[in-house]
Amino acid sequence: MIHVQHLTKTYDDLSRGKFVAVDRISFSVQPGEIFGLLGPNGAGKTTVLRILSTVLSSTSGIATVAGFDVSADPAEVRKRIGFVSNNTAIYDRMTAWEMVEYFGRLHGMPKKELTDRVETLFEQLRMNEFRDTPGAKMSTGMKQKVSIARAMVHDPPVLIFDEATLGLDVLVARNLLSVIRDLRESGKCLIFSTHIMSEVERLCDRIAIMHRGKILDSGTLSELRSRHSENDFEELFFGLLSNHESAENNELAHDVGAGI
Ligand SMILES: Nc1ncnc2c1ncn2[C@@H]1O[C@H](COP(=O)(O)OP(=O)(O)OP(=O)(O)O)[C@@H](O)[C@H]1O
């Protein structure tokens, strides 16, 4: 469903010059699977997800969603993808219902189909008690549900959650994780990015650990544990990060020594 191969993104940064934010990464995600992108701030997660959702172009490499190339067929990709982040704008004066319906209209959904779909979503995400509440009066949890509903209104087979639990209290975050599990059961293809280790441990079928633009390793939790002979996931994660940093520093020292 999602295929990423040797994907690279270089930014022209005023202070850092050419900066490689994503460095030749590859991964695939299948329907009915939750794929976790785990990495510290600045690892490159958001950049990858923004390329997949067609809002950012890559420098090189290939990314396809449901068989459509993100650069060649962005409109086809957008039809098949929903994006949930932690900073989706919620309009103060629109009600929950109006906001979700509005996004359905943007996707060109016919009236009857749209009304049925919004009914189903409000039921599924338990949003009926605040369907007429305007954005200005919503709690953080209500706003997050509206963000999810509007990302799902066109029933995309792929859903991307970018640091979606950031700033949520534990109860709301827990509820979101359970919604994501339900989506997996319904066969959706899901990518979940976070810097919180316990979330990927509890939720994800496969995990890619990202740092400084690279995927350091990926696999199921048990594959990662056995490959690195480490049962404690936190130890495993920090071990991978610090090995990578030492290797990069050694490479740099070698290049400086050789006058490169
Ligand atoms: N427009 C830009 N111009 C220059 N550098 C950028 C730009 N956008 C992102 N970066 C840099 O690219 C790197 C990766 O950023 P990105 O936001 O993808 O990381 P992330 O893993 O999502 O981290 P975070 O959780 O902090 O958002 C960072 O060093 C960031 O400063």
UniProtKB/TrEMBL annotation:
The keyword Nucleotide-binding applies. Residues 2-237 form the ABC transporter domain. It comes from the Bacteria. SUPFAM superfamilies: P-loop containing nucleoside triphosphate hydrolases. The keyword Disulfide bond does not apply. InterPro entries: AAA+_ATPase (IPR003593), ABC_transporter-like_ATP-bd (IPR003439), ABC_transporter_ATP-binding (IPR050763), P-loop_NTPase (IPR027417). It holds the Pfam family ABC_tran. Keywords: ATP-binding, Nodulation, Nucleotide-binding, Transport. SMART domains: AAA. One of its GO terms (molecular function) is ATP binding. CDD domains: ABC_NatA_sodium_exporter (cd03266). Belongs to the ABC transporter superfamily. This is Putative ABC transporter ATP-binding protein YbhF. It comes from Rubripirellula obstinata. The gene is ybhF_7.
